[in-house]
Amino acid sequence: MQFLLRRVPALVCLPALLFFALSLSAQQTLTVAKLVDFIKSSIQQKNQDKDVAGALAKMKLSEKLSPTVVEDLQSAGAGPKTVAALAALVTQTASLNSAPPKTVITVPQPTGPKEPSAADKRVALEEARDFALNYVKSLPDFLCMQVTRRSVDNHFQVGSEGSWTPQDRLLEKLTFFDHKENYELIQHNDNAVVGKNWESIGGSYSRGEWATLLSEVFEPATHTDFNWLRWGTLRGHLSHVYEYRIEQQYSQETISYQNEQKITAGFHGLVYIEKGTNIVLRLTVIPDIPASFPVQDVNQIVDYDYQEIGTQTHLLPLRSQVQMRDGHQASKNEIEWRQYRKYSADFNIKFDTTESGTGSEDKPAEEKPADGNSKDKAAPMPAATQKK
Q1: Among 248, 290, 341, 388, which residue is least crowded by beta carbons within 10 Å?
Q2: 30 with 125, same domain?
Q3: Same domain, 72 and 138
Q4: Which domain, by its residues, includes 79?
Q5: 330 and 215 within one domain
Q6: Is the pLDDT reported for residue 36 higher than 70?
Q7: In this structure, are 86 and 125 located in the same domain?
Q8: The whole model's pTM is what?
Q9: What is the CATH number of the domain that holds 356?
Q10: By mean pLDDT, which of 43-57, 119-133, 360-374 is the weakest?
């Protein structure tokens, strides 16, 4: 895989405090919980005390604000003007009902399937390896459209889910011929593109979801360490979930920054192998990046599913999500592949470039562990990575 980050001017760059203040006109009232989130976010982003107090002066609350909450926010770092504005809200909301207490719901833990035997684990892994190593050879020559929707968060907080602003949309024609992949940029947002590639636009991208990722993870030469972790249910399919790790000396995972710095990193993640068929349904990739490198928190999910090419059905990449971070600027790329067609040298392909089929259903499907416990989530990512 290859991940690359090139900084580009943000399309929307309103400070969080200003954006929040502008949105008040469309917002009737705030709960105490939303108020607390706003103050804590302002403290983290080091917004000026007077600006925060000014925003508070325009707010209306739907619940009583207690002095205890104000004291907690003051201890968390709220400035004197902010505290004074909060005290005024305490007086203004004295006649309102108190905020409801937070409730904790205890859910009984269901009993999942039994852990497979060592022999079953070995068979699942070996059959998945055989499939992965022969995967590229089994694919026919084809064409498809790759759609990449890119978003940015210019104030990303590590450990958060991010507050993403749509940046742009790229449409590329992907040609898979003679077991090699080639990309041709055909549209940027709603504008047709001729003779340009992603480098002329900038931003973050990834390559290698096709011909390289599966083979590298399962290739014996990479000395991948696999460890059965648990059962999981992905898109309705009960799957073995294995942890894996590839050390840096065996890796072909490269990460570039501004086309000026590049590293090869070891990486780890999870591989989901469907029970019974023993084919790979999902791979996650988390490179092990030195703390001194500008790009951090790279994380990718690639989902595979069956697609028709001509009259035959093949397991192919369905969608991917990539996140990366450079300081507090983060990027998220949501990639999907559409309109698979059998390759023909004289075939004049015309892609449907509408946004049909996009939306929440096109995001990587959430995995529901077989035991009902918390699912694995993708961590943040902005950069470019690619296999050598």
Answers
A1: 290
A2: no
A3: no
A4: 20-92
A5: yes
A6: yes
A7: no
A8: 0.65
A9: 2.50.20
A10: 360-374
| C-beta neighbour count of 2 within 10 angstroms | 20
pLDDT over threshold 90, residue 283: yes
Tell me if 131 is assigned to some domain: yes
Number of structural domains (the chain) is: 2
